[in-house]
Design a protein that fits this description.
- InterPro entries: DUF4232.
- Keywords: Signal.
- The protein has 233 residues and is an alpha+beta fold.
- Strands 2, 3, 7, 9, 14 and 15 form a 6-stranded mixed beta sheet that branches.
Length: 233
């Protein structure tokens, strides 16, 4: 039996204890670093909302659903254009004068009296908008070839007012002249009457069925009045 000194035995025991301790430490470290077990946390997935500014609670799994980017309080429909005024009424649409292309012309029935022949010249709004007429029409009698018969009609005195015509509404102006049988004026039988709306250049053509009209001589003048609402006096 080989004798081993006590100091040597103590050194061997100390070295063995250190080796066992080192082995236990290495095993614990390996279990911690190389663990493949997934970590779990309590709670449910947060709902997707429009408010993306609030952070998710700690320990809560986030949802994979897309988050809406619409700002909070955004209107669900496009704004509509208001047509009412603050007083509760509707906003009036400014009208403009009626153009020739928006009108239909006609000549009403003669209403004779005191040696005078009186025909209403009527303009009717055939457009889809509201427009206005103001003042006197232009007029001229023409034969079948388009040649003018007699001078341009004169204008009777009267105050002009603006006549507003909604679609389908009419305004009239009087066309008057002395009865040729009374005045002795020379006459002609027109084929048509050309009517020009106020402030317009283009005319409307109406077949004339009113018989003879004065074209020259004494008391041969034809007169027009300003427009008034309606179709006849």
């Amino acid at each position: 039996m080989v004798y081993t000194p006590r100091s040597a035995r103590r050194g061997a025991l100390f070295a063995g204890s250190v080796a066992v301790l080192g082995l236990l430490t290495a095993c614990g470290t390996g279990q911690t670093v190389h663990s493949s077990s997934p970590m779990t946390s309590s709670g449910t997935a947060a709902p997707a909302t429009g408010d993306s500014s609030a952070p998710a609670p700690s320990g809560t799994a986030t949802s994979s659903s897309p988050v809406s980017s619409a700002p909070t309080g955004a209107p669900s429909t496009a704004p509509t254009r208001a047509t009412a005024t603050s007083g509760g009424g509707t906003t009036a649409v400014a009208s403009t004068r009626c153009h020739t292309s928006e009108l239909r012309a006609s000549v009403g029935r003669n209403d004779p009296g005191a040696g005078q022949e009186n025909f209403p010249v009527v303009l009717t709004n055939t457009s889809g908008r509201t427009c206005t007429v103001r003042g006197f029409p232009g007029a001229a009698f023409v034969n079948a070839s388009g040649g003018q018969l007699g001078p341009n009609p004169g204008r009777e005195s009267g105050s002009s007012t603006t006549v507003t015509l909604k679609p389908g509404q009419s305004a009239w102006a009087g066309l008057t002249f002395s009865n040729p049988g009374v005045s002795g004026a020379k006459t002609a039988k027109p084929a048509a009457l050309l009517i020009t709306p106020p402030d317009e250049r283009d005319h409307l053509k109406v077949t004339w069925t009113g018989g003879e009209v004065p074209v020259s001589g004494n008391s041969s003048a034809v007169f027009l009045t300003v427009f008034s609402p309606g179709t006849a006096p």
